[in-house]
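ARCHIVE ENTRY
Sequence with per-residue C-alpha coordinates
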Amino acid sequence: MKASKKTLKKFIKGALTIREEGAYLCPLRYEEGQIEEFKRADSGWHWRSQFSSTTRIELITDATELRLDYYATDFSSSDCFFDLYIDGFAHEVWRVRKFNFDRVTFTMPEGEKHVCVYLPTDCHIGIKNFNINGRYKSVKDKGEKLLIIGDSITQGYGPYMSGATYVSSLQRKTGYDIVAQGIGGLPFKECAVYRGEYEPDKIMVFLGTNYYDAVDVY
Protein backbone atom coordinates (compact mmCIF):
# COMPACT_ATOMS: atom_id res chain seq x y z
CA MET A 1 0.00 0.00 0.00
CA LYS A 2 1.50 3.28 -1.11
CA ALA A 3 1.03 6.27 1.19
CA SER A 4 0.20 9.63 -0.35
CA LYS A 5 2.42 12.67 0.21
CA LYS A 6 -0.17 14.00 2.65
CA THR A 7 -0.10 10.78 4.66
CA LEU A 8 3.69 10.54 4.63
CA LYS A 9 3.91 14.07 6.01
CA LYS A 10 1.85 12.93 9.02
CA PHE A 11 4.48 10.27 9.76
CA ILE A 12 7.45 12.68 9.69
CA LYS A 13 8.62 13.87 13.11
CA GLY A 14 11.37 16.21 14.29
CA ALA A 15 11.03 18.58 11.30
CA LEU A 16 9.95 22.23 11.30
CA THR A 17 9.70 22.31 7.51
CA ILE A 18 8.93 19.66 4.90
CA ARG A 19 10.15 21.00 1.58
CA GLU A 20 8.83 19.50 -1.66
CA GLU A 21 11.54 19.03 -4.27
CA GLY A 22 9.69 17.62 -7.26
CA ALA A 23 8.10 14.34 -6.20
CA TYR A 24 10.31 14.13 -3.09
CA LEU A 25 9.70 15.32 0.47
CA CYS A 26 12.69 16.78 2.30
CA PRO A 27 12.31 16.99 6.11
CA LEU A 28 14.22 19.98 7.50
CA ARG A 29 14.95 21.05 11.09
CA TYR A 30 15.03 24.71 10.13
CA GLU A 31 12.42 26.99 8.63
CA GLU A 32 13.16 28.46 5.21
CA GLY A 33 13.79 31.91 6.70
CA GLN A 34 16.46 30.49 8.99
CA ILE A 35 18.09 28.67 6.09
CA GLU A 36 18.31 31.97 4.20
CA GLU A 37 20.02 33.56 7.22
CA PHE A 38 22.62 30.80 7.20
CA LYS A 39 23.12 31.36 3.48
CA ARG A 40 24.07 34.97 4.15
CA ALA A 41 26.30 34.02 7.09
CA ASP A 42 28.31 31.00 5.92
CA SER A 43 28.10 28.55 3.00
CA GLY A 44 28.99 25.54 5.16
CA TRP A 45 26.34 26.29 7.76
CA HIS A 46 23.86 26.87 4.95
CA TRP A 47 24.18 23.45 3.35
CA ARG A 48 24.34 21.64 6.71
CA SER A 49 21.14 23.39 7.77
CA GLN A 50 19.37 21.38 5.04
CA PHE A 51 20.44 17.96 6.33
CA SER A 52 17.80 15.51 7.60
CA SER A 53 19.60 14.99 10.94
CA THR A 54 17.38 13.91 13.89
CA THR A 55 14.24 13.67 11.74
CA ARG A 56 12.36 10.39 11.50
CA ILE A 57 9.37 8.55 10.06
CA GLU A 58 7.26 7.19 12.91
CA LEU A 59 4.09 5.07 12.82
CA ILE A 60 2.21 2.12 14.26
CA THR A 61 1.81 -0.83 11.87
CA ASP A 62 1.34 -4.57 11.56
CA ALA A 63 3.27 -4.70 8.28
CA THR A 64 6.23 -7.00 7.64
CA GLU A 65 7.87 -4.88 4.93
CA LEU A 66 8.49 -1.16 4.52
CA ARG A 67 10.18 0.54 1.60
CA LEU A 68 10.75 4.01 0.21
CA ASP A 69 12.69 5.69 -2.57
CA TYR A 70 15.25 8.36 -1.80
CA TYR A 71 17.94 10.58 -3.21
CA ALA A 72 20.95 11.76 -1.21
CA THR A 73 23.21 14.77 -1.83
CA ASP A 74 25.58 17.18 -0.05
CA PHE A 75 27.37 14.67 2.13
CA SER A 76 29.53 15.98 4.98
CA SER A 77 30.91 12.60 6.03
CA SER A 78 31.80 9.24 4.54
CA ASP A 79 28.93 7.22 6.02
CA CYS A 80 25.22 7.88 6.42
CA PHE A 81 22.47 5.45 7.35
CA PHE A 82 18.74 4.90 7.63
CA ASP A 83 18.15 3.19 10.99
CA LEU A 84 15.02 1.13 11.70
CA TYR A 85 13.90 0.89 15.32
CA ILE A 86 11.03 -1.33 16.42
CA ASP A 87 9.40 -0.74 19.82
CA GLY A 88 12.39 1.35 20.86
CA PHE A 89 15.13 -1.11 19.83
CA ALA A 90 17.47 -1.06 16.84
CA HIS A 91 16.35 -3.63 14.26
CA GLU A 92 18.06 -2.94 10.92
CA VAL A 93 20.44 -0.47 9.29
CA TRP A 94 20.60 0.65 5.65
CA ARG A 95 23.72 2.35 4.35
CA VAL A 96 23.05 5.29 2.04
CA ARG A 97 24.49 5.20 -1.46
CA LYS A 98 26.27 8.46 -2.17
CA PHE A 99 24.95 10.92 -4.75
CA ASN A 100 22.44 8.45 -6.07
CA PHE A 101 18.80 7.49 -6.28
CA ASP A 102 18.02 4.27 -4.45
CA ARG A 103 15.35 2.32 -2.57
CA VAL A 104 15.37 1.33 1.11
CA THR A 105 13.65 -1.94 1.98
CA PHE A 106 13.22 -3.05 5.60
CA THR A 107 11.76 -6.37 6.77
CA MET A 108 9.92 -6.53 10.09
CA PRO A 109 8.38 -9.18 12.38
CA GLU A 110 4.66 -9.87 12.38
CA GLY A 111 2.27 -8.17 14.78
CA GLU A 112 1.48 -4.57 15.63
CA LYS A 113 4.54 -2.51 16.52
CA HIS A 114 5.89 1.00 16.95
CA VAL A 115 8.20 1.70 14.02
CA CYS A 116 10.75 4.53 13.66
CA VAL A 117 12.91 5.07 10.60
CA TYR A 118 15.60 7.60 11.50
CA LEU A 119 16.80 9.61 8.51
CA PRO A 120 20.53 10.15 7.87
CA THR A 121 22.41 12.62 10.06
CA ASP A 122 24.93 14.03 7.64
CA CYS A 123 23.45 14.58 4.18
CA HIS A 124 20.43 16.09 2.43
CA ILE A 125 17.68 13.52 1.83
CA GLY A 126 14.55 13.47 -0.31
CA ILE A 127 12.01 10.65 0.11
CA LYS A 128 9.01 9.43 -1.89
CA ASN A 129 6.96 6.30 -2.71
CA PHE A 130 6.51 5.20 0.89
CA ASN A 131 5.08 1.67 0.68
CA ILE A 132 4.04 -0.66 3.47
CA ASN A 133 2.32 -4.06 3.22
CA GLY A 134 -0.08 -3.74 6.12
CA ARG A 135 -2.28 -1.46 8.16
CA TYR A 136 -0.79 1.66 9.65
CA LYS A 137 -1.68 4.71 11.71
CA SER A 138 0.13 7.84 12.79
CA VAL A 139 1.60 8.33 16.26
CA LYS A 140 0.15 11.14 18.33
CA ASP A 141 2.66 13.60 19.74
CA LYS A 142 3.12 13.27 23.48
CA GLY A 143 5.12 15.03 26.11
CA GLU A 144 6.48 18.55 25.90
CA LYS A 145 7.79 20.40 22.88
CA LEU A 146 11.55 20.79 23.18
CA LEU A 147 13.83 22.89 20.97
CA ILE A 148 17.53 22.05 21.25
CA ILE A 149 20.12 24.46 19.83
CA GLY A 150 23.73 23.37 19.45
CA ASP A 151 26.58 22.36 17.16
CA SER A 152 27.74 19.06 15.62
CA ILE A 153 27.00 17.09 18.80
CA THR A 154 23.36 18.17 18.64
CA GLN A 155 23.27 17.52 14.89
CA GLY A 156 24.46 13.97 15.53
CA TYR A 157 27.89 14.12 13.93
CA GLY A 158 30.14 11.31 15.14
CA PRO A 159 28.13 8.10 15.58
CA TYR A 160 26.69 8.43 12.04
CA MET A 161 24.02 5.94 13.10
CA SER A 162 21.03 8.26 13.05
CA GLY A 163 19.15 6.41 15.79
CA ALA A 164 22.20 6.45 18.10
CA THR A 165 22.56 10.22 18.47
CA TYR A 166 21.87 11.65 21.92
CA VAL A 167 18.87 13.61 20.57
CA SER A 168 17.28 10.45 19.14
CA SER A 169 18.02 8.58 22.38
CA LEU A 170 16.53 11.41 24.44
CA GLN A 171 13.39 11.40 22.32
CA ARG A 172 12.89 7.64 22.75
CA LYS A 173 13.40 7.82 26.53
CA THR A 174 11.24 10.87 27.23
CA GLY A 175 8.63 10.91 24.47
CA TYR A 176 9.26 14.65 24.04
CA ASP A 177 8.41 16.25 20.71
CA ILE A 178 11.98 17.37 19.90
CA VAL A 179 13.29 19.66 17.19
CA ALA A 180 17.10 19.64 17.25
CA GLN A 181 18.77 22.58 15.53
CA GLY A 182 22.42 21.63 15.47
CA ILE A 183 25.01 22.23 12.75
CA GLY A 184 28.57 20.93 12.64
CA GLY A 185 31.07 23.74 13.17
CA LEU A 186 28.47 26.29 14.28
CA PRO A 187 29.31 28.51 17.26
CA PHE A 188 26.44 30.32 18.96
CA LYS A 189 25.99 33.08 16.40
CA GLU A 190 23.03 35.40 15.96
CA CYS A 191 21.86 33.41 12.93
CA ALA A 192 21.44 30.32 15.15
CA VAL A 193 18.79 31.98 17.34
CA TYR A 194 15.29 30.80 16.50
CA ARG A 195 12.72 33.55 15.76
CA GLY A 196 9.97 31.66 13.94
CA GLU A 197 6.41 30.68 14.79
CA TYR A 198 7.25 27.38 16.50
CA GLU A 199 6.51 27.64 20.23
CA PRO A 200 8.38 25.03 22.29
CA ASP A 201 7.68 24.44 25.97
CA LYS A 202 11.40 24.33 26.68
CA ILE A 203 14.57 25.47 24.91
CA MET A 204 17.92 23.84 25.61
CA VAL A 205 21.22 25.31 24.41
CA PHE A 206 24.17 22.92 24.35
CA LEU A 207 27.61 24.52 24.46
CA GLY A 208 29.94 22.20 22.56
CA THR A 209 33.58 22.36 21.54
CA ASN A 210 32.98 25.17 19.03
CA TYR A 211 32.30 27.55 21.90
CA TYR A 212 35.51 26.90 23.83
CA ASP A 213 37.69 30.03 23.96
CA ALA A 214 35.47 31.74 21.39
CA VAL A 215 36.01 35.48 21.06
CA ASP A 216 32.68 36.55 19.58
CA VAL A 217 30.19 34.29 21.37
CA TYR A 218 26.83 35.96 21.97
Notes: The mean pLDDT is 88. DSSP finds five helices and 14 strands in the chain. The radius of gyration is 17 Å.
